[in-house]
Please model this.
Amino acid sequence: MIDDSEDVKPTITELFEQSLSQSQEEYYILRLYISGTTLQSVTALQNIKKICEEHLQGRYELEVIDIYQQTEAIISDNIVAVPTLIKKLPMPLQKMIGNLSNTEKVLLGLNLVRKKIIGEENNE
Model:
């Protein structure tokens, strides 16, 4: 009898595809802290809405909190700058500060794309 179970390890590509398929099923809970209708806040809101509709359609909840309207919320989530996006779920918790105009960094922060490692593309 042949034992096929000996040290069969998944490749990096297989692990990535598995992770990607899991992230395509996960539900995201996001919270965006803004300060009124400032340019930075409006831009951040537009950017995250666009990213969510393109990459998380039907799989996200976005709560927008204006710190001028809900001042107590900044204390509970330890907000030190606005706009700030918090990814509450899926874990791990992630915070991103700024207008979210760098889509690649936002996708990376949301774990929707993986960071490219130098030389990795040659190993596939």
The mean pLDDT is 84. The first strand starts at residue 28 and ends at 34. Strands lie at 28-34, 60-66, 84-89, 94-97.
